[in-house]
Amino acid sequence: MNNYDLIFSLGKKILEGSQLTFDEALSLTTIEESDIPILLGVANKIREKFTGSYVDTCQILNARSGNCTEDCKFCAQSAHHDVEVDVYPLMNENAIVQAAQRAEADSAYRFCVITSGCGMEGDRDFEKITAAIEKIGQETTLERCCSLGTLQEQHVAALKKAGITRYHHNLETSESHFGEICTTHTYKERIDTIKRVKAADIEVCSGGIIGMGETWRQRIELAFTLKELDVDSVPINVLNPIKGTALENQEKLNPMEILQTFAIFRMILPTKIIRYAGGREHNLGELVPLGFLSGVNGMLIGHYLTTQGRGASKDLQTVTDLGLKLLKNA
């Protein structure tokens, strides 16, 4: 079967309500580059059928930065790396709430409070974080999310009580590649946190970073793990190598391969949010709008944890120029 027949047959299968097998998804990684635009079009059709024309926007806040004990090779906030990055303790409640109000003014649908560190076990800031999340609920109409690392059941319960509707916790990469990226905690710890959050009926936002030396098979492995965990939102970051980290010399991915990845994730996860995340400007440049024609239906707007984005207004203009709609808060 030639490439375009393969793409159309698998697209038809999904549009009719069936699911891709692992081997079928893997077959889409070997198509010729000239056939990638066909794949993007099919993925876009699948996005339109299963998730409509609305884009879920989220703005994040780096509420506590740097000095992380973990050795994740990509991360500027790891204490294991020699990176010039802002280091500061947890922001005070008023500063966190004000950041949320700015996100609301920027037309974000969702706001995510992020802290550096492995997790909340024994973390003295946890009660301050939950108090700030409650206050955001009183002062804005934003959906509230947070990313605080690994959680135990008592943390999940407290976050739900505070008003968290979605929890972010990336797997980062496949289990078979994880040991090449991080050695200070296990893949199972990440999965256990996701399962605890799902068990509490809180949505999960979990994805990873592509371009960290993983194979195509490992990329597909990540997508199927996320499918098995039934996560609700899948952020796909593209590595932006930061000087001083262990991956500072990692070779950039071909832009068409990045778009191909978005499309394949959409085909594996037809009903989920596939979210544009960090690294898109650095790796795609003028091709950023094509992500929304590759099956993407969510995005971080504004800036990232330690790097700059295009700014919320440009991000939102891209969405509206493509005829898509922004999710709005009540």
Q: Keywords for this structure?
A:
single chain; 330 residues; alpha/beta; TIM Barrel; ten-stranded parallel beta sheet; 10 strands; 14% strand; globular; 4 iron, 4 sulfur cluster binding
CATH class: Alpha Beta
Backbone structural class: alpha/beta
* Overall number of structural domains: 1
Order of helical and strand elements: HHHEHEHEHEHHEEHEHEHEHE
Strand content: 5-15%
Major sheet size, sense and barrel closure:
10 strands, parallel
Q: What is the C-alpha radius of gyration, as a whole number of Å? A: 19 Å
Compute the average pLDDT: 93
Low-confidence stretches: none
What CATH architecture would you give?
Alpha-Beta Barrel
Query: How many E-type strands?
Result: 10
Helix content: 40-55%
Overall 3D geometry?
A: globular
Tell me the CATH topology: TIM Barrel
Enzyme class: transferase
Cofactor: [2Fe-2S] cluster; [4Fe-4S] cluster
Protein name: Biotin synthase
InterPro entries: Aldolase_TIM, BATS_dom, Biotin_synth/BioAB, Biotin_synthase, Elp3/MiaA/NifB-like_rSAM, rSAM, rSAM_sf
Your description of this structure?
There is one protein chain. The protein has helices spanning 3-15, 22-27, 36-51, 93-105, 126-139, 153-162, 175-178, 187-199, 216-229, 255-268, 280-284, 312-321, and strands at 54-64, 110-115, 143-147, 166-168, 203-205, 208-210, 233-238, 273-276, 298-300, 325-326. The protein is an alpha/beta fold and 330 residues long. It has a single domain, classed as TIM Barrel (Alpha-Beta Barrel), CATH 3.20.20.70. Helix 3 runs parallel beside helix 10 (255-268). [4Fe-4S] cluster binds at residues 68, 72, 75.
